[in-house]
Amino acid sequence: MTNTSPTPSAMPADPVAAATHADPYPYYATLRDGPPLAWNEKLRLWVASRADVVEQVLQAHGALRVRPAAEPVPRAIVGSPAGEVFGHLVRMNDGAAHQAHRPALQRALAGLDMNAVYASALQVAQRVPRQQPLSDTLFSMPVQSAAHLLGFADDALPQVDRWMRDFVACLSPLSTLEQLQRASTAAAELMARFEVLATGNAPRHGTLLAAVLAESAGGDALLSRSLLANLAGLLSQTCDATAGLVGNSLIALMREPSLRPSARTRNGLQAIVEETARHDPSVQNTRRFAAEAVTIAGTDVAAGDTVLVLLASANRDPAFNPEPDRFMPQRERRRMLGFGHGMHACPGQALACTLAAASLHALLQHAADLDAQRLRGWSYRPSANGRIPVFH
């Protein structure tokens, strides 16, 4: 696939394929014109595409869960180190398990000085070698910046980067057995390193790790291991999702030369990244699984049913954002659902956008000609929900 807009005959095959389509947004518009909650026979699930319906789904915490009741951890990784980490993640759990560490993570993240985070992330991103392909640099810059923020030493950052790239494979239903095995090896290594950071010498002052541990004081050993898994999970969220945010922001600059002067300032970069998160988000969809019968937008959803939640479509709903198809960095009252909504809203939204803005800054300092790159084009990595460009 290329970066050219598709013709009507080249619409995505289905709402999942839309995530990696050249331009899924006309297709999403057709879905919003349909039923509030539509049954897709091919995928055997319900599809929510309108902003108001997406909000209803994301707020139905009791009935609609983030994992199937019978499979809290994917079968392919049950009993493995990757499965242990997955099972502890607050974003993959509901109820008491979800609340165990979320407040501490929220408070620690809320206490970050984003100006200091930006300055630190920019320094780390500037040190990432330029010899690797641009598409790999999209991952390395934010992951290494987040690892530094969590307290890893500078000489450990490239290895943490490699482990995290391996670990995130356990989060994808498209991963091969070999990728899942590498993910478990990486999970075990990451947990061991986090344990050393947390229980060895006092974590470096000012790190996110120190802040999280301070907010979590009083937890027992079991709780602490679960907390460490969530630190690994926080790092994993800066991998695919933030890489896509950086790459899609770069594409916005390629498509809209008029944006480039604003990219010379930190505030301008931040605005471009935040509008990209709304206009062309890296997380296009998520799923919810009915633990009990529930009615959404007048439609009865049976226990055991799955709802595909089209976050990217909701962001472009004209009832949610005026002139939704225009890329407007200075948009007033920007609204987006790509970072979730309600109980499972991502507490790291500000951090993700700051890391992405710093990474974009570093890329633009040394990037090749944006117009030439636009002519070379890009495609998207295979994914069921992520929109991460691969530059040609």
From TrEMBL:
> Quick check: keyword Heme in the entry?
yes
Put simply, this protein is called Cytochrome P450
Record-linked InterPro entries: Cyt_P450, Cyt_P450_B, Cyt_P450_CS, Cyt_P450_sf
Keyword list (alphabetical) reads: Heme, Iron, Metal-binding, Monooxygenase, Oxidoreductase
Reading the lineage from the top rank, the first entry is Bacteria
Organism source for this protein?
A: Variovorax guangxiensis
Molecular function terms from GO: heme binding; iron ion binding; monooxygenase activity; oxidoreductase activity, acting on paired donors, with incorporation or reduction of molecular oxygen
- UniProt similarity note: Belongs to the cytochrome P450 family.
